[in-house]
Write a structure and sequence with these properties.
The chain has a single domain, classed as Jelly Rolls, CATH 2.60.120.10. Helix content is 10%, strand content 39%. It is built from 1 helix and 14 strands, in the order βββββββββββββαβ. It is globular and about 35 Å long.
Length: 165
């Protein structure tokens, strides 16, 4: 996509927890972690949870393209530029691009208050087998399409901030 607000960045180091290709650009890691995330058409992250002993979570600021957000056992929500998604900690969810559009959002990681143990804030993602099963059900039910698993979605990245299944 041309004319993006922030740099696209390089291939996402957490790509093992995504279907399709995504790109990550760190905008700030001083105090608050803020990332620009670009998904190629059809690219999505696995179902995942942002854990925190208190506070925590994530905010998505949609800037370009068309995408989707879904919480576990809820219907998916279409996302467009200007949409804001507030994701509390401990809520299992996924987000990514529509099949026919790239999608870009700024992800703001809500961290624990100053002085708190930051290691208490972490993310987990489903194992590929669990992900595939729930994703297939979601795609068939809401989008009437079949998922396209990729080899990269089955690999584990040692640099990923997510906890291995």
């Amino acid at each position: 996509m041309s004319g993006t607000l922030f740099p696209k960045g390089g291939p996402n180091p957490a790509g093992a927890y995504f279907t399709g290709q995504s790109y990550l650009s760190a905008l700030s890691e001083a105090g608050v972690q803020i990332f620009n995330v670009t998904f190629e058409p059809g690219g999505r992250n696995f179902w995942h949870i942002h854990h925190a002993k208190s506070g925590g979570g994530q905010i998505l600021l949609c800037t370009q393209g068309r995408g989707w957000y879904q919480e576990w056992d809820k219907e998916p929500r279409e996302l467009r530029p200007g949409d804001v998604v507030n994701i509390p900690s401990e809520v299992k969810h996924w987000h990514g691009a529509a099949n026919d559009s790239e999608f870009v959002h700024v992800a703001v990681e809500i961290i624990l208050p100053s002085g708190a143990n930051r290691s208490a804030t972490r993310n987990t993602a489903n194992c590929p087998e669990q992900e595939r099963s729930k994703r297939e059900w979601t795609l068939r039910r809401y989008f009437r399409v079949s998922p396209r698993p990729t080899r990269s979605s089955l690999k584990f990245s040692q640099t990923s901030p997510l906890v291995r299944c």
